[in-house]
Backbone:
C-alpha cells in the first residue's frame, strides 16, 4: 500500500495538513536506500459514501426491481451505458464508480435517473426523499 499525503501549495511550497508531515517523514525513513517515485497531482474529491449508498441502495435497487435484472447486471449495464468510452485501440473502457469524483458521480446518477424515467417509465426517488 502506498499512503497518500495531502496538503496545499502556498507560496510555492507544499504545506501538509496536521500530522501529515510527520507521517511522511516516517514513511520516507522506511525507504532508506530504495529508488522512489514522487507523484504530485491536483486534489480531486472522490464520490462520497452517501452518494455510493444512494446509487447502490436506491438507484440500482429500484432499477433491478423494475426490470427484473440482478443488481450486478443493472450496475454493469448502467456503467456500460453512461460510464464507458471506446479508446483509440477500439477497446471499451468502463469507469469505476469508486474512482469517480463527487461531481462525476452526480452526473452519472442523473443520467441513470433520466434514462429510467424516459426510457423505462421508472421513477427513482431523489436522495433525500
Residues:
Amino acid at each position: 500500500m502506498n499512503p497518500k499525503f495531502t496538503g496545499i501549495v502556498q507560496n510555492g511550497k507544499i504545506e501538509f495538513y496536521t500530522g501529515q508531515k510527520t507521517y511522511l517523514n516516517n514513511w520516507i525513513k522506511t525507504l532508506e536506500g530504495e529508488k522512489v517515485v514522487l507523484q504530485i497531482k491536483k486534489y480531486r474529491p472522490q464520490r462520497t459514501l452517501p452518494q455510493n449508498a444512494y446509487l447502490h441502495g436506491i438507484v440500482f435497487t429500484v432499477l433491478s426491481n423494475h426490470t427484473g435484472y440482478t443488481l450486478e447486471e443493472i450496475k454493469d449495464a448502467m456503467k456500460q451505458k453512461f460510464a464507458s468510452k471506446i479508446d483509440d485501440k477500439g477497446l471499451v473502457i468502463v469507469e469505476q464508480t469508486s474512482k469517480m469524483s463527487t461531481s462525476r458521480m452526480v452526473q452519472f446518477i442523473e443520467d441513470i435517473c433520466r434514462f429510467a424515467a424516459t426510457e423505462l417509465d421508472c421513477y427513482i426517488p431523489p436522495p433525500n426523499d
